[in-house]
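### Sample
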Amino acid sequence: MAALFALLFLSIFLGANSATFKVTNNCQYTIWPGMLSNAGVAPLTTTGFQLQPGETRAIDVPPSWSGRVWARALCTSDPTSGRFSCATGDCGSGAIECGGGGAAPPVTLVEFTLNGGGNNDFYDVSLVDGYNIPLVVFPQGGSGPNCVPTGCVVELNGQCPEGLRVVSGGQTVACKSACEAFNDPKYCCSGAYGNPNTCRPTSYSQFFKNACPRAYSYAYDDATSTFTCASGKAEYLVSFCPSTSSLRQSGENNPQAAGVPLINYTMTFSGNGYSTHYLPSYSSIFFSSLVLSWLATFL
């Protein structure tokens, strides 16, 4: 009996300290978020689900969970076999639940390690595996100097360098990493390039970094791309295709953001296309930096 009460107390205690992820679809189309626990970490109660435009789903996450979240898009079920598949972000399970399957690149990822070193939650948005959909992570109620929003608010598919494009139905639906496109060690940070001294930014990774300064653009892009909040203090809003209304709502939940002007940050690239280094135009870089500076005022 004493053991039973101890287990009950422990379950209540752990439940009280679990984290909550709120996953929101602000895209104008349906998405199917996927969730994958890291090796050795128990799977969540859901590993994939559908979100219609405007929908939000709250997911309770164990206090020491680590893993990744992404969005699948352009998904269909085969009329004969019933197999479910997606043009971008597919996890290979053949079903809406990913069941331990990871995202096929290219895909925009958000990565979490809760209750990590120094009693901090670590989180980042990564374009190391390429890009498919804009997303921003908003920590809500957290604390710490580096507990700030991060993400990639820019729509990059329309300006993806030609050699990196994934095309479906005549439209670019995702943008590969140079590693995925060319399988070259200098882009993949492998072999002789498998350390931060030899694996350096390239013109392709700079394309992603200039557009999305807080996101990982290559494997060793740690200094400007990893963020932390005190463990057990924050909930995390993962917003796909974040809109001005979603930013306003997040601001209302953070008093320090009161009075910050909203910006029309629908990201497009202007000018005459790319230089030989595939860099976004100066206007796009300016507006991306402006939006991220504004997001930083949330916390």
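Confidence is low (pLDDT under 50) at residues 1-16, 251-299. This sample (Thaumatin-like protein) is used throughout the tutorial notebook.
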